[in-house]
Amino acid sequence: MTDTSTPSQSLPAPRTGKHRHLLVLSQVYVPDPASVGQHMHDAAAEMASRGHIVHVICSGRGYDDPTQKYAPKETLDGVHIRRLPLSSFGKKSIPLRLLAGFLFMGQCMVRGMFTKADAILVSTSPPMCAAAALVISYIRRKPIVYWVMDLNPDQMVELGKLKPTSMVVRLYDFFNRRIFKRAREIVVMDRFMADRINKKIDVSHKVSIMPPWPHEGHLEVVAHEDNPFRREHNLSTDDNANAKFVIMYSGNHGFSTPVTTVLDAAVKMQDRENLKFYFIGGGVGKKDVKRTIEDHKPTNIADLPYQPLDSIKYSLSAADVHLVSVGDDVVGVVHPCKVYGAMAVARPILLLGPDPCHVSDVIRDHNIGWHIQHGDVDGAVKVIDEILHTSRETLIEMGQRARELVNTQFSATSLKGAFCDVVERVLVGNGN
To answer: Which of 246, 325, 383, 394 has the fewest CB atoms inside 10 Å of its own CB, making it the most exposed?
Structure first.
């Protein structure tokens, strides 16, 4: 098992005299704002820049907003993209998400059979997509690189959506063992995820551990006084007098990332006139934010949709501290990718979740934040008050340490290069 968290040099373009064809299956893909789509495009574009021919099969509509329609065919950054109809119905209903996943899986199988490929790259979004890769791999005898971004049925079991002894879970685990065994290389997000997989089936000899890279091309530190997002939302004045202190959650609000403890704390803290809580993004968990606003009419909570990728540096930099949530039962099941964006804009982290987990490891090892537990509203109020009384100099130092960590251990250049080295090793056959 390889922990690839240090800088790696990218391999050069293939010297075989023959272009290799990589088939990428991903329901979500740019310009959709979901993080998994951006990461898939980063990897696909890097492989294209190395001289390979990359074909992507993805959904023709938005993952969070199915009313958003994308071009059925497009070439972007050297990557050939084919978008499929009836592949996304939004995230408000689990049955509709499952239906969209199965429809996408079926279309991928058909398209994938007739798309030239020397290897297949697939992730766990949606989980059924890996089944399409497995079928294509068996029939066409092509190797798979499996990018594990979350684990199912583990997620559904831990969240109480499925019973561990149910037939669905047993079938799912049987399928997982097939794809883990069939994959030539497996990439996972953190050590906790690797441990969970190896308890199902020992694949430690072909597992690489590397977290997802931050989208550095869209991220930079924007000073509060220069930030149009803060001006638009009346968070700062020109002289920064009476500036608001912002704690922000930005990204997907899911079952596995509950924020109710901080919402309840925010309701109790409405008398802190300089404190604002921002919840930006989408997902099924957004209903908790909306319900809190409807029930309590708080003056210190703001609810906003996903921000455009080309202006996300402003919204992320508008925060003084970023909230990252990890469900108590999903350590090693999902990975809190949003932490890297917060670190990239030099902001400290407030973890709402268990210890140990990946984020608590990072916070503790590098002193870049605080930790509160789910359900402990009074404890959350106490910690947030502690944050409010932390000097500006200390907050800046914590943020600078976080950004330096992104620039070194978690940089996009090193992590993307290391990931594509794994893909290319399979693609050119060096892993045989």
So the answer is: 394
- The SS3 assignment for 81 reads strand
Q: How many other CB atoms are there within 10 angstroms of residue 290's CB atom? A: 11
β strands within 26-164, DSSP E: 53-59, 73-76, 79-84, 119-123, 144-148
Residue 308 burial (CB count, 10 A)? 12
CA distance 175 to 240: 56
Predicted local distance difference test score (pLDDT) of residue 60: 84
**If you write DSSP's letter for every residue of 175-213 in order, what string do you get?**
HHHHHHHH-SEEEESSHHHHHHHHHHS--GGGEEE-PPP
For the CA atoms of 22, 23, 29, 30, the dihedral, rounded to the nearest 10 degrees, stands at 40
**Alpha-carbon distance values, 221 to 55, 346, 347, 408 (Å):** 34, 7, 9, 16
pTM: 0.83
Q: From the CB of residue 327, how many other CB atoms can be counted at a distance below 10 Å? A: 22
Q: What is the per-residue DSSP string for 96-129?
A: HHHHHHHHHHHHHHHHHHTS--SEEEEESSSTTH
Alpha-carbon distances of 403 from 41, 214, 342, 362, 366, rounded to whole Å? 23, 11, 9, 12, 11
121, with CB counted inside 10 A (0-12, 13-18, 19+), is buried
What CA–CA distance (Å, rounded) separates 48 from 42? 10
> Residue 60: helix, strand or coil by DSSP?
coil
Please spell the DSSP secondary structure of 331-361, one letter per residue: BTTB--THHHHHHHTT--EEEES-SSSHHHH
218, two tokens: 């869209």
Q: Which residues pair with 75 in a beta bridge?
A: 80
Q: Is residue 33's pLDDT more than 60? A: yes
Of 126, 124, 54, 151, the closest CA to residue 423 belongs to 54
pLDDT of 68-116, one tens digit each?
Answer: 889 999 999 999 999 998 877 666 666 777 777 788 888 899 999 999 9
Secondary structure (3-state) at 312 = helix
CA distance 333 to 324: 16
